[in-house]
Amino acid sequence: MEVLTTDILVIGSGLAGTVSALEAEKAGLNVLITAKFAIGSGSNTNLSNGAFTVANPLFSKEDHLRETLIAGRGLNHPAMVKTLIERGPDAIEKLRGYGVPLIENPMGYFVKRPKESASLPGVLLMNPLRQRLKDSSIRSLSGLIIFDLIEEDGGIVGAFGFLIDGRPCLIQSKAIILAAGGAGAIYQRNDNQRGILGDGYGLALRTGLSLLDLEFVQFYPFVMAEPRLHTFILYPPYPKETRLLDEKGEDLLEKLNLGSDLNRAIIAQRDSLALTIFEASRNGDIYFDLRQVPEEKWNHYPLNFLRRSKFPFRERPFLVSPAVHFCMGGVEIDETGRTTLSGLFAAGEVTWGVHGANRLGGNALTECAVFGMLAGQSASEFVRERGPASF
Question: Is the peptide bond before 237 cis (omega within 30 degrees of 0)?
């Protein structure tokens, strides 16, 4: 059996896990970050659109609070929302300090992309963070599936799992940060990474912790549904020439009174739009039609991403459908990322509290950055109070 020791173990290497590991390292502690796949690139963060909803000169904290509560139907946890909004600008500056290129937009920030780049924004977000991990003292271990957290005297003392070659692995640690969310892939139609199955939820549940609000699952309205293609998400901004058609070729935007601004609807009315599209799909297939989009717009994101496929997106309409995108419920934490189990912290999609019944677009990455930062700091304080790891 492989036996490893560390002060802080981070399970999951998306944005939340990576930020928490980098924060913990600043305390001068030994940090180990693990993942089932490649560190930093096998997570759902890589598939994201790189948008952070955060207060800025164009979007006040009051605006952020209002929009978050409206989207969540008022079922959000007030203290968690307040923390998200108050610490959001700090998290943005932290990411910039790590080398993430961010530019201001009307509701926060986007990851800046080279004009002709066809890379997903999530990839551009994680690239500098992966490099920061490589340049740090943080140890990385990929190809590890954690099966159980180990408790002793009412607190966490480590984790047990198996390496990719089948060898058992025991990690002794004074604190653990759970950052392994992404349970969407357990559903038949979803836009998540295929191997990201929400391991963190299961690990927390097996320790006896409660999982809250799991009934709140967000669907994204427009996900590729062509049988020959991966069910990847069709991210905005959509060109104004985009049409949404039923199988008779009729314009659904007009027919269903969806308005002309799909980009705004995706952010603020994602749940109702997905439900409307689902109801319409019960009467027949739904298609995206990009045939009227001018040639020059195909040189820019997101259409230049589609150009890499052999599928004739410019020549004919293609099937789309709503699909599971995000889980709002999860592990109960406080405003510092602490769970009710001593030594266990959590951050990112695996947690509960911020989003209520539905998530405002852009709040997922903000949540990962804010609570990843806080979980890393809280875990460091927890370990420092107890002295260095001794096993």
Answer: yes
pTM, two decimals, is: 0.93
Q: Pairing between strand 2-11 and 31-35?
A: parallel
Tokens of 244: 């949404």
Is 48 in contact with 122 (CB distance < 8 Å)? yes
The values of phi and psi at residue 141, to 5°, are: -140, 105
Q: What are the distances in angstroms from CA 151 to CA 156, 209, 336?
A: 4, 12, 21
Q: What is the DSSP string of 173-195?
A: EEEEEE----GGGGSSSB-S-TT
Q: How far is CA 150 from CA 23, 160, 239, 260, 379, in A?
A: 24, 7, 51, 53, 17
Q: Is 38 exposed, middle or buried (0-12, 13-18, 19+ CB in 10 A)?
A: middle
Write out the chain's pLDDT in tens, 391 residues: 999 999 999 999 999 999 999 999 999 999 999 999 999 988 999 999 999 999 999 999 999 999 999 999 999 999 999 999 999 999 999 999 999 999 999 999 999 988 778 788 999 999 999 999 999 999 999 999 999 999 999 999 999 999 999 999 999 999 999 999 999 989 989 999 988 899 999 999 999 999 999 999 999 999 999 988 888 888 888 898 999 999 999 988 888 877 767 787 777 777 888 998 999 999 899 999 999 999 999 988 889 888 888 899 999 999 999 999 999 999 999 999 999 999 999 999 999 999 999 999 999 999 999 999 999 999 999 999 987 555 4
Q: In the beta sheet, which residues pair with residue 169?
A: 2, 161
Whole-Å CA distances, 345 to 16, 117, 221: 12, 37, 32
User: Could you tell me the two tokens for 218?
Assistant: 């967000």
Pairing of strands 330-331, 144-152: unpaired
φ, ψ at 330 (rounded to 5°): 160, -150
Q: Are 269 and 311 in contact (CB under 8 A)?
A: no
